[in-house]
Task: structure prediction
Amino acid sequence: MNQKVVILFVLLIAVLVVVSGCNPQKFVPPAVSKTTSEEEISPEPIVEEVLEQAGMVNVKFTDAGFEPSTLTIKSGDKIVWENARSKNKAMLLGTQGCVNIKSPILNVGDNFEWTFTKTATCTFVDGILPSAIGKVVIE
Result:
């Protein structure tokens, strides 16, 4: 049993190392337009649901991964990750500039928050669904 855990851990670390260097592109947020009436609201689903209120940003664990998966915040801002999956648990693990971030296992509806105090670029992954990878740039 312990050998399986060690092998799984080594594979997870290898995937993180490979994936962390695969996307050097800087995130450019989409242009935002203000709407003035209900007729002007687009019926298309919103891909990035970022709610910024007093330095707080919400990120969701979904069945497909993180939503949004890439974001830029300011030093001092807080991110709240919520497990919004249909039935699976989630666990946040920080890598690169954020190795101290580690949530407990989150049941559906649970959340975990972290306030970023230093400028950095961090990659985070879901410890339960390792293909779910996100990135935050702290300015």
About this structure: Residues 35 and 41 are 7 Å apart (CA to CA). Confidence is low (pLDDT under 50) at residues 35-53. DSSP finds one helix and eight strands in the chain.
